[in-house]
Amino acid sequence: MKKTALGVIALLGAAAVVLGAFASHGLKESLEPEQLNSFQTGIRYQFYHVFFLFVVYLLPGLSEKTKSLIYHLVLVGLLLFSGSIYLLSTKAVTGIDISAVGWITPIGGLLLIIAWFVLAFRYFASKSHS
Question: Which residues cross the membrane (predicted)?
Answer without folding.
Answer: 44-62, 69-88, 100-125
